[in-house]
């Protein structure tokens, strides 16, 4: 098992996993997903076992307290001290096997080495408990309705790790 940077060959598996994973929000287009990757390729990766991709994670630098809107490509050249974890998803066959946690830990290490001050995300589909166990807290801030019902903005400060 290995965590590897996303490359052009990763996208068919990423799209398949995204379609399996998201039930409460519509999946994003390949163009939108690739805009996250081209913005911050060093913080976008897959979890691979043999030839099979079992999960993926997309994260990028961000400059605003409010999360980026879904279904829209990122603007070019956005500096920021926030690492926004845009998407993490695991194949149905790998659920409960630690894939998401391993990918998150890899991202956190990258964030620390890259001097990000915090990681932010929007917790969907009843995932807030998972993120709380990893040290995230809910931020009391309104977010776009595009994230669906029961979505929560969460953050983890990295200054004290």
Description:
With 161 residues, the protein is α+β, with helices and mostly antiparallel strands. It has a 7-stranded mixed sheet with strand order 1-2-3-4-5-7-6, sandwiched between helices. It is globular, with a radius of gyration of 14 Å. It starts with a strand and ends with a strand.
Secondary structure layout:
Elements: E1 2-5, H1 11-21, H2 30-39, E2 44-49, E3 52-62, E4 82-90, H3 99-113, E5 118-123, H4 128-133, E6 137-138, E7 152-157
Parallel strand pairs: 4-5
Antiparallel strand pairs: 1-2, 2-3, 3-4, 5-7, 6-7
Question: Would you summarize the structure shown here?
Answer:
The protein is of the alpha+beta class and 161 residues long.
CATH topology: Aminopeptidase
Mean pLDDT: 91
Write down the secondary-structure element order.
Answer: EHHEEEHEHEE
Q: Describe the biggest sheet?
A: 7 strands, mixed
Which quaternary structure do these chains form?
A: single chain
* Count of alpha and pi helical runs: 4
CATH class: Alpha Beta
CATH homologous superfamily classification: Gcn5-related N-acetyltransferase (GNAT)
Helix content: 25-40%
Detail the poorly predicted runs: none
Domain module tally:
1
| Form type | globular
Annotated CATH architecture: 3-Layer(aba) Sandwich
Distance between the termini: 26 Å
SS-based structural class? alpha+beta
Number of strands: 7
What's the gyration radius in Å? 14 Å
- Strand share of the residues? 25-35%
Strand order of the largest sheet: 1-2-3-4-5-7-6
